[in-house]
Amino acid sequence: MQKNSNVTEFILLGLTQDPMKRKIVFVIFFIFYVGTMVGNLLIIVTIKSSRTLGSPMYFFLFYLSLVDACFSTSIAPRLIVDSLSAQRTITYNECMTQVFALHFFGTMEVFVLILMAIDRYVAICKPLHYSTIMSQQFCTILIIIAWLGAFFHSIAEILLALKLPFCGPNLIDHYCCDLQPLLKLACMDTYLINLEWVSNSGTVCTGSFMILMISYIIILHSLRNHSAEGRKKALSTCISHIIVVILFFGPCTFIYARPPTTFPMDKMVTVFYTIGTPFLNPFIYTLRNAEVKNAMRKLWRITTTSESKR
Description:
By secondary structure, the chain is mostly helical. It has a single domain, classed as Up-down Bundle (Rhopdopsin 7-helix transmembrane proteins). The protein contains eleven helices and three strands, in the order βαααβαααβααααα. The chain has a three-stranded mixed β-sheet. It is found in: Cell membrane.
């Protein structure tokens, strides 16, 4: 992996160089990461153990929570450890692995959000054919396609990263390895690679965002023909999805769908979609979803009852 590079390790500058602020960063992101893992694992366990949450919507929500937990894990632990570490080094191979993981789980989240929109479209616009179209087999095929799509996108990204020769310096002005900060360190003309990167990641971000927005416009337009109760329930679900889409795609589009320039707020914007959104997703879906909350209460009662009998 290092045939194009004389650099064997990089130094991540992180979010701040101030010792006191670094301690604050440690506390804040430790809380965020623990909250992300607890929230998403709770949703995963609840969906797997509940018979009432067997619909395709919860099938996709299960994978969204799984991807959120993995996505945050690929970024947050190193940020937390580095915030208290005097030596914030990352080897070349670890850096390339993080680039792959960041894009793999990030793209998988994009595709799962699209699948959730497809599910809502069929449920609201084709209710009589919902169970036939969104069968367990079809949903499984969609998830497999999403995994494969994320994998091939990440392979394209890592191949671009592996083309970059690094002769020094090795200071990455970021808290994680991504193609954008690595391009600034490469000792070559990166115009074409930058163009390929923006074309690849930018197309995924903007194209997916447009697909999602159009699908939800169609869904909301079709709700005019539903009863007041059905409209209220559908709106509650769709609004949750739209909030997640905006929170995730807004920062992603800002980072990946623009010319090769850097801004001072880039690191904080990246924090929002790599750590903030995975933390918020469980709250958005559970606080607005009565079925998930009821299933969690039932799971809690069963757990506490079995513990008291021991």
